C-alpha cells in the first residue's frame, strides 16, 4: 500500500506548508482515498461531481510522508525539504518553506 500511496501522491497530490505540513491527494475513486484515510487518518471530502480530496495536516501528514517517501519519485525532493522545514525555526524554516514552494513547479526525472 505504501508504494501505491506514493504513486498517488506523485501523480495527484500536493504537499504544502501553511503554518504546518499538509498533504492533499485528489482522485475520482472514493474507495482508495477512504482506505488511505483508514490507514493514516485525515479526511475525505467531495470536491465536485465524482472528485474527492483526501487531506492530512500536521503529525498525520508527516507520518504518511514517512511511510511513502522512499517510494516517491516526483515529490521526493519536496518531502525531504518539508522535513527540513519541520526541524528548523525562524529564517531557516522560512528558507525551506520558500524552497518547497519553488519545488512544486519543478519535476524530477
Strand-helix topology:
Elements: H1 2-12, E1 13-17, E2 21-27, H2 30-40, E3 43-48, E4 51-57, H3 58-68, H4 76-87, H5 90-103
Helix pairs in contact: 4-5
Describe this protein's structure:
This protein is α+β, with helices and mostly antiparallel strands. Helices cover 54% and strands 23% of the residues. It has five helices and four strands. It has helices at residues 2-12, 30-40, 58-68, 76-87, 90-103, and strands at residues 13-17, 21-27, 43-48, 51-57. A four-stranded antiparallel sheet has the order 1-2-4-3. A hairpin with a 2-residue loop joins strand 3 (43-48) and strand 4 (51-57). Helix 4 packs antiparallel against helix 5. The longest helix is centred in the C-terminal third of the chain and has 14 residues, at 90-103. The two termini are 23 Å apart. The model has no long low-confidence stretch (mean pLDDT 95).
Number of helices: 5
Across the major sheet, the strand order is: 1-2-4-3
The secondary-structure class comes to: alpha+beta
Number of strand elements = 4
Biggest beta-sheet profile: 4 strands, antiparallel
Helix content: 40-55%
Give Rg in angstroms.
Answer: 13 Å
Amino acid at each position: 500500500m505504501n508504494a501505491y500511496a506514493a504513486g498517488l501522491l506523485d501523480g495527484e497530490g500536493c504537499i504544502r506548508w501553511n503554518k504546518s505540513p499538509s498533504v492533499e491527494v485528489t482522485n475520482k475513486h472514493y474507495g482508495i482515498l477512504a482506505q488511505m484515510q483508514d490507514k493514516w487518518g485525515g479526511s475525505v471530502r467531495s470536491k465536485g461531481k465524482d472528485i474527492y480530496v483526501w487531506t492530512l495536516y500536521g503529525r498525520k501528514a508527516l507520518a504518511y510522508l514517512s511511510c511513502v517517501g522512499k517510494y516517491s519519485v516526483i515529490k521526493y525532493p519536496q518531502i525531504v525539504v518539508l522535513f527540513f522545514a519541520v526541524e528548523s525555526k525562524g529564517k531557516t524554516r522560512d528558507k525551506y518553506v520558500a524552497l518547497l514552494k519553488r519545488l512544486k513547479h519543478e519535476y524530477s526525472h
